[in-house]
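Hi Q.,

Before the meeting this afternoon, I wanted you to have the zinc ion prediction in hand. No need to reply - just skim if you have a minute. The sequence and ligand are here:
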Amino acid sequence: MILRASLLHAVGEGPLEARLEGWSDGGLFIESGRIADVGPFAEVRARHPEAPLRRLEGGLLLPGFVDAHVHFPQTGVIGALGLDLLDWLERVTLPAEARFADEAYARREAQTFLRALVRSGTTRALVFGSHFAPAQAALFEEAAALGFPLTSGLATGDRNLRPELHTTPERAYAENRALIERYHGQGGLRYAVTPRFALAASEALLEVSGALLREHPDLHLQTHLNENPREIEAVARLFPAAHDYLDVYDRFGLLGPRAVFAHDVHPNPRELERLAASAAWVAHCPSSNAFLGSGLFPMRAHLEAGVRFALGSDVGAGTRFSLLGEAMDAYKTQRLRADGVNLPAAALLWLATRAGAAALGQPGEAGGLEPDRSADLVWLRPPPGSTLEAVLAQADGPDRALGAAFALAREDAVAAVWIRGRLVYQRGMLQAE
Ligand code: GUN
Ligand code: ZN
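Predicted structure with the ligand bound:
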């Protein structure tokens, strides 16, 4: 199949080296779920004269977005105002997550969650799981049914949460092992060891997390790091022998190129150096950091230290699933810092696509429109009469068009989404629309 559309992606090795590449009348030839050819429509058409054609009139066809940090059991807590991290967890979020003990409820929530990702244009994600193994299994199964390339894992904690959410190191090991055997590597599913954060983990639980990674070197790891000053002080009290927050994880062998640490709003220079040396990733979650008042992400310090970072929506502390909105919040966060990085549209698109794919260990598989990549695509086409439609009509060039999309496009601007070449969402396909 050939898609004829206005095509755009971000190419380059990092956010600041990124540049936009695209064709206003482009052609994208998809074969067996992969991009097989791309370029000016007339040339692609000439090379594949027999292929069926679908014309996407208006708007922009982009690589699907890749969310490097989002919580499965938190859709229902989006917008719980007035609290900082630790109070928000205790009063709102952990009680909501306790409901996932009910497997039928968890399965319905898994469907809602995956649908919310897809209709926001997100085609791959690293997802923080539930504390309940049956709920986590339901998420993997619903992702497989949808054809969504999910990377996720059972969230674990054995202190400082709520009793119903606590596990034991032995149980965490057994449940992780069972889920890894059932789901890791099945279709597009991948497993991430997911200790919730140092504050909720005993040394024995962190030891189990490290053991799982040693036993299965191709697993991912995700957790939280340096989000909030009160949290950081509490971690220092719990682990007095550790140099700092990152060192708690480092001592148990959790750092590496497949590790993603969410937030890192308050790192020290030693931590930045260790993150860079271990080639670990940070998931920058700007709407969450503003919503909980956690702070302004020190992007320049990460860039100067050579620490790689991608974007995370961090729903439900994050305020929507759309990585377009998240990219705009990343931009605004930098405007608010004295040492802020002035991010052009290419950098924002790079962060919302290519960075996430690399953070998920899939740098050649997703995040761009080059041949051989998975055909993961989002067609942004504003609804008729919308403000975005009016602004796009006046945009003189791709930078302005993308800037308008970051400012204005949310899930209602997503007209269609393909994952691995399959149309998984089209505006109007759900009855409620
Ligand atoms: N730290 C530990 N758990 C969470 C969570 O659910 N959300 C955020 N933003 N930070 C956390
Ligand atoms: Zn989080």
